[in-house]
UniProtKB/TrEMBL annotation:
The keyword Nucleus applies. It comes from the Eukaryota. SMART domains: ZnF_C2H2. It comes from Allacma fusca. InterPro entries: Znf-C2H2_11, Znf_C2H2_type. This is C2H2-type domain-containing protein. It is found in: Nucleus. Signal peptide: none annotated.
Amino acid sequence: MFVIFFECPVCLKTFARNATRKLHMELHNLEKAFMCELCGRSYSSQIHLNRHIASHKRDRKRKRKTIIKKEESEAVPQEVEIEATNIVEDFLEL
């Protein structure tokens, strides 16, 4: 079987597909033309920018879950403190 490899002329890394080599070549490009509008970070390819933007979305979901969990858990420690205080007071009375 005859296999053709596509080689990066900069670092000599080889790829099975030319499209993959072209994506890789963007890493060597010093110009980062794709900028995130949310935080200003720049990337050399649209694919890397898309992955970065997805991380913003994941972070927002995590923050929302954390806020909800904090709101739910805020009531619990107060009740636990009251119970613990009552137990200590009962113990001291003995």
